[in-house]
Sequence to fold (311 residues):
Amino acid sequence: MENGNKLTYDLIIIGAGPAGLTAGLYAARSRLNVLLVESKAPGGQLVNIDLLENYPGFPEGVSGMDLVQRLQDQAEKFGLEVAIEEVVSLRVDGEVKTIETSRRELKAKSVIVASGSVPRRLGVPGEDRFVGRGVSYCATCDGALYRDREVLVVGGGDSALTEALFLTRFARKVKIVHRRDKLRAVGVLQDRARANDRIEFRLESVVEEIRGEEQVKAVILRHVGTGKRTEENTDGIFIYIGANPATGFLPPEVQCEEDGYVVTGTNLETSVEGIFAAGDVRVTPLRQVATAVGDGAVAAMAAEEYLANLE
Fold:
């Protein structure tokens, strides 16, 4: 419903990752007046996954980009409207939720926060300077730039090893740097990485500095046990040390934990009536595409029930 340049929706979904797109599918199919707002292209971090092997229904795996396109096509088939604009703030005035974007002001009766998370940075000298010039957070995006070169991957979880394995398609050598003496990734990924002759490990080590001139040329590693510092030549560094929730736009009324993740109840309701959270942005024991999709469905149905009770 339009009122001047202020629009009122039944539901606004913030974020077009798997949680947001699924919520949009369910809401649009339920004939709600719904808008999905995304700051960039739909998909979130899913678009950075070259091959997703643990999403049900795809025994041969599926690329993140392909799955995103399928989700978006399905949601838009039922009339979901997607707007590419950045959410700046969210204000609450009783039953009315006001969302300020980079382009306009929107009003909604209910909101689903599915804004996901952003890659965590190392916070070391040289990192900011060399972003896009040897420092990357997306192997799928930048891996082909390192054909026949040497790269480092920082991290020991599933994402780090998945991306390291992907990088072996291009780089002649991939060195995995992890601060602990054991990796955290699932066994199958560890087995694949250890069996790949292009992968080496630098365990119990942390990056202290990234060096170069116009491009990354080397990093300074420190062994956490001995404290010994060494310089390791590299053409690029890919960082996978976790993520931070994208919740900077939320008002203080929405309860978050100290690390910024949104606290939710059984039906993914937040501390503010009419505001729900789904996917990686919320407190949850598991952050996977499958759980994000489930969250999106639950949040959409909870929002629909909330709206029905307003009438």
Observations:
- Residues 1-5 have pLDDT under 50 and may be disordered.
- Residues 2-119+243-310 form a domain with the FAD/NAD(P)-binding domain fold (CATH 3.50.50.60).
